[in-house]
């Protein structure tokens, strides 16, 4: 099947825009390969330090002929998703020895949980934890004693951060190793209903806590299709997993064999063999487009409208929101997974999962099928489903039809002919809106603004009944430079309640909403942000704001002369406490959201 012309055109647009940066990047990794991928050239004292912490692997390391795999791990047991990694390094060392290689933990990276910090001060560290993870990954791989790397991470900022750091070592072959989702608990729809009842004062704290614990009950990622699980869909589409590794549950034979295969396969694609596949070559312009298409066709997390541009820039590639908008209009919506439907990711996997979606997209010419991937067979391998037969890991073709067409559908019978994203712009700047979960009669909202500078003030106004009307809730000074761009997920229940009452409601913010943003129309990531002169700083209570996702419009309906003459609102003072003051440098130098919201990349000229 020939590639869809719009996907080809967007890819060409990215190729042309990225030409000089990508050429410089490829030159960098060529030079890094030539100068830094030969352990025998290192000094003996340097090598002795690197080998001193190991026993059974030392003799094999000394001869320098087999791959030494650097494991970069995001393990901690405060995050359910990352608690699964506890035994992975020792298992991976055994699996490396099975094929004549060695493995060492190169380093650890922090992994914070937005679910724990949501609505509290710690969330203001969240976005910049991604830069911290990238820097930690670079430190981990800087010792130059590894010929390949395995990246152990799964959740929101962790996978983007690992990739941003790892791509600066693009001469090394690498694999992303997920841990899988927890098994299904309390259905997401029931959990959301308890949250909304609590927001209205109709459920007690005890009831809410019991519901939340019933939903988040074991090891593995949360089961809704938020940022963490959108990460896994994108890694499949970029060819950075063992095919089908995204949603196998922890503690299963299938999960173990997928990880074992990742180690074995990594040793086959080293620089000194005939199938060299460095990560910097796998992550090219086509792979980035494939990731965007996978995200859009499944109604994935809006956070990746920041993360994917940042990942791409680390590999010398520039993608912007116009590219996402154009791709979204060309790609059908093939899944309904919570918060865009009632099923969770386990239901998604059972109905066909990422492999079914990728098979459909490839077959319809809606995804690049000719990219270099971790799998020897190329992108087609990611359209198949793994299984255990006897003791062997095998892959099968998916059935022609979905296992449940209320969750996953074919290209011939999509939920929508278009994907789940729109870019909106106007006299307030450029913003993103996820429409896959929004009823089409809510795609256009025109109502008076009520302006706030923090989400707690919104919740207080809601509880006081001040928002019981048609309203565009505006929350500004929430961008990367203002306060680190925390997610505003705690606004979802009260805004949902207002919408349920029949009011025409929307959110406009220069902050993030969440991978779990859902039924309330939300224009988010508004750029330029309020701090530093963004036009959102000119809005006043009562101004009529028009949000039109269909036409791609976000406008303050204010006389242009008056709009031009207005002063900007004064920013609140920078907050301290919970370590936020330590991230001032990252806030002060952060790029706009559309450029990735990264101080590290901005300062590096990427």
Automatic annotation (TrEMBL):
List, separated by semicolons, the cofactors it needs: [4Fe-4S] cluster
One GO location term (cellular component): cytosol
Q: Where is the Dihydroxy-acid/6-phosphogluconate dehydratase C-terminal domain positioned along the sequence?
A: 407-596
A biological process (GO) of this protein is: D-gluconate metabolic process
| Keywords for this protein | 4Fe-4S, Carbohydrate metabolism, Gluconate utilization, Iron, Iron-sulfur, Lyase, Metal-binding
Q: Which reaction does it catalyse?
A: 6-phospho-D-gluconate = 2-dehydro-3-deoxy-6-phospho-D-gluconate + H2O
User: How does the cofactor bind to this protein, according to its record?
Assistant: Binds 1 [4Fe-4S] cluster.
Tell me where on the tree of life, at the top rank, the source sits: Bacteria
In the UniProt record, the signal sequence range is none
InterPro entries in alphabetical order: 6-phosphgluc_deHydtase, Dihydro-acid_dehy_C, DiOHA_6PGluconate_deHydtase_CS, ILV_EDD_C, ILV_EDD_N, IlvD/EDD_N
List positions binding [4Fe-4S] cluster.
155, 222
Q: What is its EC number?
A: 4.2.1.12
Q: Which GO terms describe its molecular function?
A: 4 iron, 4 sulfur cluster binding; metal ion binding; phosphogluconate dehydratase activity
- Which ranges of the sequence are coiled-coil? none
Q: In which pathway does it act?
A: Carbohydrate metabolism; Entner-Doudoroff pathway
What family, per the record? Belongs to the IlvD/Edd family.
What HAMAP family does the record tag this protein with? Edd
UniProt function note: Catalyzes the dehydration of 6-phospho-D-gluconate to 2-dehydro-3-deoxy-6-phospho-D-gluconate.
Q: What protein name is recorded for this chain?
A: Phosphogluconate dehydratase
Which species does the entry assign this protein to? Sphingomonas hengshuiensis
């Amino acid at each position: 099947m020939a590639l869809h012309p719009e996907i080809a055109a967007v890819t060409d647009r990215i190729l042309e825009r990225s030409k000089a940066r990508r050429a410089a990047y490829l030159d960098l990794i060529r030079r890094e390969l030539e100068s830094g991928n030969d352990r025998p050239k290192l000094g003996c004292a340097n090598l002795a330090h690197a080998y001193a912490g190991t026993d059974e692997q030392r003799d094999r390391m000394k001869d320098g002929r087999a791959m030494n795999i650097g494991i970069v791990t995001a393990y901690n047991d405060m995050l359910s998703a990352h608690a699964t990694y506890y035994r992975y390094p020792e298992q991976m060392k055994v699996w490396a020895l099975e094929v004549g290689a060695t493995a060492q933990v190169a380093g650890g990276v922090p992994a914070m949980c937005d679910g724990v910090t949501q609505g509290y001060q710690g969330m203001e560290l969240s976005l910049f934890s991604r830069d911290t993870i990238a820097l930690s990954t670079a430190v981990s791989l800087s010792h130059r004693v590894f010929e390949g790397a395995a990246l152990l991470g799964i959740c929101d900022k962790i996978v983007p951060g690992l990739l941003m750091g790892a791509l600066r070592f693009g001469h090394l072959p690498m694999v992303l190793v997920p841990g899988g989702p927890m098994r299904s608990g309390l259905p997401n729809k029931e959990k959301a209903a308890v949250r909304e009842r609590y927001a209205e004062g109709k459920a007690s704290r005890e009831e809410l806590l019991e519901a939340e614990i019933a939903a988040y009950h074991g090891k593995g990622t949360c089961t809704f299709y938020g940022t963490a699980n959108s990460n896994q869909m994108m890694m499949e589409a970029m060819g950075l997993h063992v095919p089908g590794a995204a949603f196998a549950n922890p503690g299963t034979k299938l999960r173990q064999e997928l990880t074992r295969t990742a180690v074995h396969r990594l040793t086959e694609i080293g620089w000194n063999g005939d199938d060299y596949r460095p990560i910097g070559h796998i992550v090219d312009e086509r792979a980035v487009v494939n990731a965007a298409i996978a995200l859009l066709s499944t109604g994935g997390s809006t956070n990746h409208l920041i993360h994917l541009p940042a990942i791409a820039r680390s590999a010398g590639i520039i993608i912007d929101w116009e590219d996402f908008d154009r791709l979204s209009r060309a790609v059908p919506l093939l899944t309904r997974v919570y918060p865009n439907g009632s099923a969770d990711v386990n239901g998604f996997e059972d109905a066909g999962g990422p492999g079914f979606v990728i098979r459909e997209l490839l077959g319809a010419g809606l995804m690049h099928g000719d990219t270099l991937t971790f799998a020897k067979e190329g992108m087609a391998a990611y359209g198949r489903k793994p299984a255990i037969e006897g003791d062997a890991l095998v892959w099968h073709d998916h059935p022609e039809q979905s296992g449940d067409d209320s969750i996953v559908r074919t290209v011939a019978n999509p939920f929508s002919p278009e994907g789940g994203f729109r870019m909106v712009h106007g006299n307030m700047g450029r913003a993103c809106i996820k429409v896959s979960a929004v009823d089409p009669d809510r795609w256009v909202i025109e109502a008076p603004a009520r302006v706030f500078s923090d989400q707690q003030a919104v919740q207080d106004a809601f509880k006081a009944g001040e928002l019981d009307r048609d309203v565009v809730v505006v929350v500004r000074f929430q961008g990367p430079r203002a306060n680190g761009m925390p997610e505003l997920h705690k606004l979802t229940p009260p805004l949902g309640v207002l919408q349920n009452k029949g009011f025409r409601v929307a959110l406009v913010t220069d902050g993030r909403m969440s991978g779990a943003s859902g039924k309330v129309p939300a224009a988010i990531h508004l750029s330029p942000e309020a701090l530093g002169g963004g036009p959102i700083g000119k809005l006043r209570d009562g101004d009529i704001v028009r949000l039109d996702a269909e036409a791609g419009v976000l406008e303050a309906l204010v006389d242009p002369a008056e709009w031009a003459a207005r002063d900007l609102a004064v920013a609140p003072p920078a907050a301290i406490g919970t370590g936020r003051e330590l991230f001032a440098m990252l806030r002060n130098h952060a790029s706009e959201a559309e450029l990735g919201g990264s101080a590290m990349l901005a300062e590096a000229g990427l």
